[in-house]
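Check these lines:
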Amino acid sequence: MTGAGSPGLRREVGLLGLTAIAVNGVVGSGIFVLPATVAGLLGPASPLAYLVAALVTALVVLCFAEAGSRFEETGGPYLYARVAFGDFPGFVVGWMFLLSRLAAAGAIANAFVAYLAYFHPAVAGPAGRLAAITLLLGGLAAVNVTGVRHGSRVVNVFTIAKLLPLLLLIAVGLASGRFAPLGAPPSLASLQRASLLLIFAFGGFENANVPTEEVREPRRHLPVALVTAILLSAALYVSIQVVAQAAVPGLAGEGAPLAAAGRALLGAGGAAVVTLGAVLSTSGSVSAIALVAPRLLYAFARAGQMPAPLGRVHPRYRTPHVAVVVTAFLVWSVAVLGSFALLAAVSAIARLTFSAATCLAVPVLRRKAAGRPPAFTVPGGDVVPVLAVLLSSWLLAGIPLDQARAGAVALLVGVALFFAGRVGATSG
């Protein structure tokens, strides 16, 4: 059972801030490239894949909402797995969750550089890339050290800033009155492949489950934030796909599909507006992870499963400052040394692992009556958690062999870290 929570952290994140963290996790760099990929798989019927992926993701979201509504401690999926299954499974799940955040932040930081290079080509070079990544991560670390309120406000600002160009594109596209017909129904295989791709794009909502000790009324607000984030993201994704397909008939062949749609709908400045949206979107996604990931290291340290300094709270700012700095360094390292494709693949595998574990934890937490009585309960008994676990397992089974190897190595590193920590604690 978890402790009563740290008195050192302040509850300064409200419902709006929590929802912004979840939305920032979902709406990242993917929406700026996925419309072309999905159009290539399904053609005019592409919006159907977004609806299927959203419905499937909703099953997982409901499980995260119930598990999160039981606790007021920091940790998210790591906490749920540790309470439900014990220290070792909890550590492995937490490690995969941490790895997914680090890998995702590294991948998105590289995408940020690629979009920024549209305005300043020198950023694409080795020195420019290093400087851009360092300034982005260093600035976010400084903000998050000085207080969770500041970090949350930055996330809020980026959320609004990233949505405005997308909403402008949607508004202009819908006002134009141009709509592409849905055409013939797609094959089941094509719909399944496209939906699988988009399920990854709907991930990131789980960021909101982590900083619970710094959220006001977390058990009541978390379910609302998660459901709102998925509904908003689904509406945004479907609308963008509809507008882009109508504006650009050859959307599947576009390397920058939304920039092409912006150019078609808004003229010469349209591509720049959308690209600016991509810069803001990637910055916002990294800012959300910069706030969330240190709280996971803090939770590890609080449970005695990582070095104690990671659990320190700054005496003035009341933030896990050591964990913030360490997280920034780790993300900087993977961003500089790793490629976007590899980091994205590792993040996706890790996400499926901790998502399945959280869904499986829901029935266990019910039977153990762990935590407090849930403020939100998934309807239908164990049906939704079981379906969500089966879905996640099916997706994991379909991962390419080279990506599966990378995921297995990551898992083994987590196991090794757990037992190394146990040995160190015994010898100490």
Observations:
- Residues 1-7 have pLDDT under 50 and may be disordered.
- The chain is about 70% helix and 0% strand.
